[in-house]
Q: What sequence folds into this?
């Protein structure tokens, strides 16, 4: 069956509007390490998917998954030493004060649990987030999504402009003054939920503002914003679903941007494809959450989650993948930044570890964002065997986020393809 016929069949089976990447969608049939293969056997370098963080079809993870499923897999209402050990190992990777874990299956669930935890602890309901964020897709968590363009603020949710230096809130300010200008918007958002009667429960931020476009953040902003939240009686939630698990060259994104959360959420890469997510906090916060919600999840805290989760951690540590992310990411960032002056349509190149963004603009003195150009670059990279996507507030950021096993050799071949694409853009 042709790809176009499969796409039509997919639309009937899944409904119109189920998203697909690229002008000519891919029919993928196999993955291995940092590579994906289509139905015709063509190999692509995966530079987008962070779910298989230790590599597609990782044999150690596959073996752990099969072994555990062939031994025992039940829900969490029995004692299992494996999930206890996994929780202890996960909290040991955190700062002091993160002591207990609530496991779930998706980042959306984990964020919802973090919100419920903050509300249970504070007795308040108000949430503050950025105006171009994404934290999940259910009805509660979805109220935080992209408030700038797609939905209004409410009594319980207020947004502030995400802090950045490329398109600053106020022009011609030094870094300290710009940071303070953004902090004033955080104060205003907190005041908004307090004035509405909802009260202030939590400030939630992706640790590196990933969906906002990986901006360079004014120094000290994240720490000061967290301090503001606590001074106002709220908790600080770090969404590490994209930023965590070594993505930045550190275990957690907040280690890079310099703040300490009260509640940490992680998800996508934890199970390398098996649905696994976590909400981690102090024992007091978790105990209060459990007492007030009686939370239970049929597929969470299972022996299967524990076995696969431990295998992923083993692979990250034994293969030194965090250092690999830091080293290869720094190489890629440096090389891409060196190319920026050659192309007027590249406004900025930024990021950390193996999570980079290339901001596409109109060019020739026009710094307006260019989503169409970002889409064009992604399609042409795909045609050359490299899979990326586009993201950011204006969807004009070429998004580079490969599995952590992505190596220097793949980075250098990508740079050759990128040069070819940029030298042969339309228009």
A:
């Amino acid at each position: 069956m042709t790809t176009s016929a499969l796409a039509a069949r997919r639309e009937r089976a899944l409904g119109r509007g189920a998203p697909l990447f690229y002008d000519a969608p891919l029919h993928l049939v196999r993955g291995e390490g940092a590579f994906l293969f289509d139905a015709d056997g063509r190999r692509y370098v995966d530079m987008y998917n962070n779910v298989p963080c230790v590599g597609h079809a990782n044999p150690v993870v596959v073996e752990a998954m099969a072994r555990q499923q062939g031994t025992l897999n039940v829900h969490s209402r029995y004692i299992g030493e494996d999930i206890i050990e996994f929780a202890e190992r996960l909290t040991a990777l955190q700062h002091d004060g993160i002591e207990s874990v609530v496991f779930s299956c998706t980042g959306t669930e984990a964020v919802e649990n973090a919100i419920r935890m903050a509300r249970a602890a504070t007795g308040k309901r108000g949430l503050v987030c950025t105006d171009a964020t994404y934290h999940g897709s259910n009805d509660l968590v979805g109220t935080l999504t992209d408030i700038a363009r797609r939905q209004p603020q409410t009594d319980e949710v207020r947004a502030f402009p995400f802090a950045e230096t490329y398109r600053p809130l106020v022009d011609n300010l030094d870094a300290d003054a710009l940071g303070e200008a953004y902090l004033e918007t955080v104060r205003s958002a907190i005041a908004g939920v307090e004035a509405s009667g909802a009260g202030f429960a939590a400030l939630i931020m992706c640790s590196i503002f990933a969906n906002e476009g990986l901006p360079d953040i004014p120094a000290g902003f994240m720490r000061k914003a967290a301090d503001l939240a606590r001074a106002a009686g709220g908790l600080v939630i770090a969404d590490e679903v994209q930023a965590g698990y070594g993505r930045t060259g550190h275990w957690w994104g907040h280690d890079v941007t310099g703040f300490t959360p009260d509640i940490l959420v992680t998800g996508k890469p934890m199970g390398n494809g098996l649905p696994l997510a976590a909400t981690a906090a102090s024992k007091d916060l978790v105990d209060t959450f459990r007492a007030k919600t009686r939370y239970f999840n049929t597929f969470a805290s299972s022996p299967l989650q524990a076995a696969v989760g431990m295998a992923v951690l083993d692979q990250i540590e034994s293969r030194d993948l965090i250092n690999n992310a830091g080293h290869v990411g720094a190489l890629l960032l440096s090389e891409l930044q060196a190319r920026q002056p050659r192309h007027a349509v590249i406004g900025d190149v930024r990021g950390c570890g193996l999570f980079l963004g290339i901001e596409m603009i109109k060019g020739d003195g026009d710094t307006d964002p260019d989503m169409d150009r970002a889409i064009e670059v992604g399609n042409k990279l795909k045609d050359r065997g490299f899979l990326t996507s586009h993201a950011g507030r204006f969807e004009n950021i070429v998004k580079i986020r490969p599995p952590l096993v992505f190596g220097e050799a793949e980075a250098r071949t990508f740079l050759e393809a990128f040069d070819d694409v940029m030298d042969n853009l339309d228009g």
In short: The chain has a mean pLDDT of 97. The longest strand covers residues 355-363. Residues 250 and 313 are 14 Å apart (CA to CA). The chain has two domains: 3-54+320-423, 61-318.
